[in-house]
Amino acid sequence: MADPYSTTARPDLAALRRDLEDSVQGTVALDAGTLALYTSDASNYRRVPLAVVIPETIEDCVAAVRACAAHGVSVIPRGGGTSIAGNSIGTGVVIDTSRHLRTIIEVDPASRTATVQPGVILDDLRAATAEHGLTFAPDPSTHSRCTIGGMVGNNACGSHSVAWGTTADNIVALDVLLSDGTRMTVGSGQTAEEFAELAERPGRAGEVHAALARLVEKHRAELRTAMPEFRRRVSGYALDRLLPEKGRDVAAALVGTEGTCVMVLGITVRLVEAPAARALAVLGYDDAPSAADAVPALLGHSPLTVEGINDRMVAALDRQGSRSRVSLPLGGAWLLVEIAGKDPRDAAEAAETMIAALDGDSRPRDASVVVASAQQKALWRIREEGAGLTSRTPTGVEAWSGWEDAAVPPENLGDYLRDFDDLMARHERYGVVYGHFGDGCLHVRIDFELTHEQGRREYRAFMEEAAEIVVRHGGSLSGEHGDGQARSELLSRMYPPGLIEAFAEFRRIWDPAGLMNPGIIVDPLPLDADVRVATDLRPELPLLSQTTLAYTEDDGDFVKALRRCSGVGKCRRQSGSGVMCPSYQVTQEEKHSTRGRAHLLFEMANGEVITDGWRSEEVRESLDLCLSCKGCLSDCPVNVDMASYKAEFLHQHYRGRVRPAAHYSMGWLPALARLAALAPAETNRLARLPGVSTLAKKAAGVAAQRDLPAFARTTFARAFRRRLNRGEGRQGGPKVVLWPDTFGNLLNPGVLTSAVRVLEDAGFSVVLPRGQVCCGLTWVSTGQLDVARAVMRRAVSALAPLVSQGLPVVGLEPSCTAALKHDLLELLPGEESRRIAEAVHTFAGFLNEYAPDWIPPRVDASALAQVHCHQHAVSGFDADRELIARAGIDGEVLDSGCCGLAGDFGFTEGHYEVSSAIGERELLPRVREADQDTLVLADGYSCRTQIEQGTGRRALHLAEVLARALTKPS
Predict the structure, then answer these.
(1) Residue 112 dihedral angles phi and psi, to the nearest 5°
(2) CA distance linking residue 155 with residue 142, whole number of Å
């Protein structure tokens, strides 16, 4: 059956492609892989586009829209793809402005305006305006990756709309493109005479303004009386902005139209002065409704923002294991109230004054004022990552958007929350409520059962009843995310028929052919159609029965694991802290983001667009530049584990097939290294011969630019045994098991030797597991999971007797330590593996926990420290920070993300350029700039290799630094 929202007639795809390719300089894609990337956004919905255009210029947008008009094909403008209501997907041509249209055309401090292209990232605009003491005020939690064009589409707001309003309140002018190819500029704040003059101009622009004047005259009464008067009324079209008393603001009326009227090509925004200082008052209340009751009193103190969180959200962050160093006042729900001041002291005093003035129901149970920037960031992180943190209930049940965005006037918020709690109880639903309490806008993810028909019927019933409740409280179905497919169908419950008719007329003025993002707001799609998670999997693709990893956090369900990615797109960040996602940071291509890979894998499981299952070349190509860094395991709010999904895919993809050469050379590195250890000098000498080295690298699939590793003259294990046979080494004291990883045992034994020296100085007797052991990581990362499981079984057999005696295990190589703590449980789930995983410690973690009174040798040096990705993801770096400080090292921990080498990735042929570019983002330049006296700390073998080959500087393991200090004369 033809999709009525796709085209007015069945298009000739070959002709459409030809016309697009002839007129567009950028990318025109109709291949399965690209289409799969754009079937969904951050919503519950899935729709397959006809084609995807990634314009390089504004002229490309014009050409693409005109080509679509000629073929009667719909257009779906798209920014960062973080829309939660299904606003930026469709069955026509998706035009993605986020890749190239990122030019900040002008920042004018005098007029306090900035003009930008639609793909400019919000944080980039804020960085550009900050040097003038100005900022663009709307600040949604996706500020690190959302585009200004997308913010215009949805009328994004964020936390500070209490002080500065929504995107619509901060727009000066829009450069827009109509579906017939007409380009025009619309502004704000026009007088009656100016508007009349525009309506009399010849051509399409004059026709539009004249039609808008007639629309306002026809519906004037309802525009004044039937549109709720509060800031977060985002649902529908803001036609009241066209009223004379509101300045006939055409630009603001187009904000929030979700691409259904025009495509935005350029935006001029109003800037505001950034506060000199801010203090954060954290107010504790018994529950969320009680906190909401206090909001009207707080608004009288002119806060910049009033945000609400509750104990369920805090518990979700605790479960993720990332709420370090955040303390909250007593209570079950908290308001984060930001107050401005001329300096930190002034801001803090204003916050204290506000708290002292609160009485009655507004008086908090407990309160604190936070001035320190780091503490404020930690608290804001709880709020900003809400959408991801609340996507699973405490029992692991999936929770979804849909009713995540309603808003009511702030004075009605407490009563609305109580009614909403009753609704949740009646429907036996669980959700975590949080959001912009100061503007009456609430977010919530609810455990709807969208994977079966009965659950979707219950979803519809809930949505309809929820809509009635919010309307009863004078509210809006959407408070900032837009209506999209999730709520457009419910608009008739919020607005009278006359306004619904006015919405349709408004859209026809701009887009008579109905080609712009059809099915949204006007003539809406059903809210329970096109549900992404409900799509049936093809029975001939037995993905579930073939998976090898345990997926312990997802009930053994590979597709449920893939559904962790809700599309919020934190992996597409342009700046900020963290590891995820290094390849996207360099390529800026959606298919190289964690989200893109998750979408491709989901489409592979679905089987409609990507039809060859595990054999998919589209998925293989996308995963090829995944570094398996595990950054997403910790940095993604929903803990997507793309490294594991990649290992699963490679295992299935190459089952019974010849693998790439690098899988045999680097995947089997532990075995090959043991062979080389039989004659290390000869092996090293041979590898240095120019001709032999070139041939060896080519045969092994190693990048020609890389130096082959040199093998140690003797292994650590052999030297350790000889030392014991000589009667050297500590014999007394508590025992600790040292894990002899391949890199330390065969390539760089000085690290393990140094660790022995330090552990013995701390009072421990070091023992090794019996036999030749390995964590199996190289086989995991290359998808050779059967071999990895066998290798891990030997590791378990060697460690189990020692762990059963209560002995802790210390790992020096972070990737191996992480494999024993995480990957082991996925390949060999069970109690024995769990006990071993719990017994494994990092070097610093062990010393801090088991030798808290030991005094490390004094190093007295400055250092740059690079955090290994796997340690960042699995164990964290807090223990290392503590031990570095205890040793007197003035250490700066680089927030440089992945080093770029990442195990075998940077050595593999075809990856060198990306690997180097990742290192050059921050790590390598910082090492080059450092004084020669500055230590470079890197516990990971890959990190040290990347630093040495990229800068010529030798990096040291922390154990080496401490051991050297022990040997210095006192």
Answers:
(1) 55, 50
(2) 14
Contact between 231 and 166 under an 8 Å Cβ cutoff? The reply is yes
Out of 4-18, 26-40, 293-307, 630-644, least confident range: 4-18
Backbone angles phi, psi at 516, to 5 degrees: -90, 110
The model's pLDDT over 220-268, given as tens digits with 9 standing for 90+, comes to 999 999 999 999 999 999 999 999 999 999 999 999 999 999 999 999 9
Neighbours of 83 (CB within 10 A): 30
| Nearest residue to 856 via CA among 878, 879, 885, 890 | 885
- Say if CB 444 and CB 403 are below 8 A apart: yes
> Tell me, what amino acid is at 428?
E
Pairwise CA distance, residues 650 & 117, whole Å: 39
- Residues 963, 484: Cα–Cα separation, whole Å: 61
pLDDT of 545 higher than 70: no
Helices 594-606/642-653 angle, 10° precision: 40
Residue 283 backbone dihedrals phi, psi, to 5 degrees:
-110, 125
User: Which H or E run contains 432?
Assistant: strand 431-436
CATH assignment, 1-274+484-517: 3.30.465.10
Model confidence over 425-436: pLDDT tens digits? 999 999 989 999
Q: Where are the domains of the chain?
A: 1-274+484-517, 275-385, 536-652, 669-848, 861-967
| Rounded distance between C-alpha atoms, residue 218 and residue 501, angstroms | 11
Give the bridge partners for 443, in sequence order: 434
Contact 708, 680 (CB under 8 A): no
CA distances from 490 to 403, 495, 499, 526 (A): 11, 9, 13, 9
Distances from the Cα of 785 to the Cα of 325, 639, 702, angstroms: 38, 22, 22
14-19: Cβ within 8 A, 24+ apart: 15/71, 16/50, 16/51, 16/67, 16/68, 16/71, 16/73, 16/93, 17/51, 19/67, 19/70, 19/71
Angstrom distance (rounded) from CA 839 to CA 849: 12
What is the token pair recorded at 462?
A: 């809930």
Does 275-385 match 1-274+484-517 at the fold level? no
User: What is the DSSP secondary-structure string of 324-335?
Assistant: TT----SSSEEE
Beta bridge pairs of residue 767: 737
What letter represents residue 675's amino acid? L
Only one residue has tokens 């370090």, namely 324
Cβ atoms within 10 Å, residue 225: 10
How far is it, in rounded angstroms, from Cα 620 to Cα 942? 24
CB atoms within 10 A of CB 658: 8
What is the distance between the alpha carbons of residues 28 and 910, in angstroms, rounded to a whole number? 25
For the four alpha carbons of 944, 946, 947 and 949, in that order, the dihedral sign comes to: positive
748: three-class secondary structure by DSSP: coil
- Model confidence, pTM: 0.93
Nearest to 85 by CA among 389, 444, 565, 483: 483
Q: Which among 275, 270, 280 has a CA at the least distance from the CA of 372?
A: 280
**Could you tell me which residues are beta bridge partners of residue 445?**
432
CA 735, 749, 704: angle at the middle one, nearest 5? 145
Cβ–Cβ under 8 Å, residues 437 and 302: no
- Cα–Cα distance, 227 to 233 (Å, whole number): 8
Closest CA to 272 of 438, 109, 103, 106: 109
Kindly report the length of the chain.
970
pLDDT for the residue numbered 970: 52
**Alpha-carbon gap, residue 474 to 485, rounded angstroms:** 22
CA distances to 40, 86, 348, 486 from 4, rounded to whole Å, are 19, 17, 57, 18
Residue among 964, 935, 774, 785 at smallest CA distance from 863: 935
Task: Report pLDDT for 323.
Answer: 41
CATH, domain range 275-385: 3.30.70.2190
Is 475 within 8 Å of 412 (Cβ atoms)? yes
Phi, psi of 439 (to 5 degrees): -115, 10
